[in-house]
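Dear support,

Our group has been running a series of protein-ligand predictions, and this particular one with pyridoxal-5'-phosphate is the one our PI (initials K.S.) wants archived with full inputs and outputs. We had some confusion internally about which version of the output was final, so please treat the block below as the authoritative record. The input we submitted was:
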Amino acid sequence: MLEKHVRKIYEYVKSQNEWRNRTINLIASENVLSRTVRKLTGSDFAHRYAEGHPGERYYQGTDYIDKIETDLRNDFKTLFRCSQADVRPISGTNANEAVFSSFLKPGDIVMVNSTPGGGHISHHLAGSVGKFTKNVIDFPLSKDGFHIDVAKTKELIHICRPKMLIFGRSLFLFPEPVEELKDICNEYKIKIIYDAAHVLGLIAAGKFQDPIGEGAFIVTGSTHKTFFGTQRGVILSNMGNNEWQKVDKGAFPGSSSNHHLDTLVGLAVATQEVISFGKAYAEQTIKNAKVLAKSLKHQGFNVLGEEFDYTESHQVAVDVKEFGGGKMVASLLKENDIILNMNILPHEPLRNVTNPDGIRIGVQEMTRVGMKEDEMERIAALMKECLVDGKEVRGEVNKFRQEYTEVKYSFDELLADLKSPNLL
Ligand SMILES: Cc1ncc(COP(=O)(O)O)c(C=O)c1O
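Confirmed final output from the archive:
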């Protein structure tokens, strides 16, 4: 009887929940949903379709989702001070695809952050950009490797006249030079796309940079890294209605049909949390990242970006070559319930991507469960005990993590009485 398999899946889900609640999660692309968001997902909306826009659907039965989607779109316009917002992409990659398909054609030259420079696969030949043009060139980087070299980029632009610059990265420590390159882009009619997947929540809070205000034509992003979830994507802009029609078609029908209404509801709730608590959260997140970087340095780790105070985002980059490289370190830490990922660093050749020198650390999730500066020092000490002293720290990690079981920066306490309507 296959019912046994269902019980097995149930056990896997239960084990995952219990296990990940005991771990220190430092994966920079993730975050946790509040209880309130979780109560309101898995509803009837998980069964439904709604193609098109509120009020102009191809399906009947969309009355309630139309209201939710309309309000959400308006909330995004207010949060990001822009006139256009598409909340339908079901992921950051999906949002990028909608944009690239609208503005790139074969032969166009695109400048992007390389993989060692932190760029995302969707910006590259192997990813979404590569479906539309093969002419992808990398931004020249400054010596530290975490900044675009503006003077050299201008020289390259004069020579090769790209159609598009794509800013934004997966290893994203410092703001991009949008303002510095705006004029030359205007001169040559180059479109600036800013992929804010990692830093969307920090931008919403006004704590990183304001890409649209600085001159970006379009901002894309994921809604679940420094934003409070659920896992979806978004496209934002100040462009006029005529040009926006292209993006609109790129999102639907270009890169999706139905847009997963259940997670749209979750995003609508999470956005209220960002509006109410996002500033305090972003401030604490950046503070925590800086403290973790300094503490790791103090514990003897080769933390990168020291001359720039390590980071202005939720991330920290560490060269762990002396401990056997990123793959070995990430695996050893995982055995001790500290979860993060190996990461290629700017000084490395691309062939190192599967066994790089670096690790990437993100503090956004542990900040969301209430950790502050003292806890960052504790995490640095646990990493040192594990990696430098060779001690097993899993027990200590689990005990420490037990103190942080609630999702802060949310309405969970205020709405504790709210029962999930989903299985009533
Ligand atoms: C810079 C950047 N863009 C896009 C994405 C893709 O986002 P998603 O996983 O929502 O498709 C990521 C994912 O981590 C990213 O780092």
